[in-house]
Specification:
By secondary structure, the protein is of the alpha+beta class. 29% of the residues lie in helices and 33% in strands.
């Protein structure tokens, strides 16, 4: 796994280095945005729903293609790809997965477009409830990526908050996991 992370990092560094010459006069944007959702379940019930396998329980269009391990898993080091609504391939690396501590983190790269860090922290909020804070940090890797970075604003966060909270709570209710 360490070898993969090293290769992944070197690849990003080379990509970044290659883009420097082409973007000397271009400002590449970076933006951070977060939102918090209130969920009807415990930290142990909710956290797995943010993993790459279980996300499909609340996000019907979620269809990762697993690379490592090929059968998919809910653990640190999982590598998979998805395709954006615009048809761009995204490479995902699950960098942290700890159900007990309510922590899930990803690095997502859309080659020559953007790189995104997603950090999810789930904490108790009463006996059978919790809240999850989802933080996105996105950086453009090229001129085209600046528009996607600019879309990471308060309006985007509110849309995501509403969608995620509703969809996850519906999934929890279907499983009989609610307060």
């Amino acid at each position: 796994m360490e070898m993969f992370l090293m290769i992944f990092g070197v690849g990003l560094a080379l990509l970044s280095e290659a883009l420097v010459g082409a973007t000397d006069s271009l400002v590449l944007e970076q933006r951070t945005q977060s939102f918090t959702i209130m969920l009807n379940g415990t930290v142990a019930d909710v956290t797995p729903l943010f993993g790459p396998v279980r996300e499909a329980e609340w996000a019907p269009d979620w269809s990762p293609r697993f690379i490592q391990p090929a059968q998919g898993a809910q653990r640190e080091g999982v590598v998979f790809t998805t395709t954006s609504a615009e048809g761009r391939d995204r490479i995902w690396l699950l960098t942290a997965y700890d159900v007990k501590d309510g922590q899930v983190e990803y690095v997502v790269t859309t080659p020559a477009f953007t790189v995104t860090e997603i950090k999810i922290r789930v904490v108790p909020d009463g006996e059978e409830h919790c809240k999850a804070t989802i933080k996105y940090r996105r950086a453009a890797l090229g001129a085209e990526g600046n528009e996607e970075v600019a879309n990471l604003d308060a309006h985007w966060a509110e849309e995501q908050r509403t969608h995620w909270e509703t969809a996850i709570n519906e999934a929890l209710a279907k499983r009989g996991t609610h307060g």
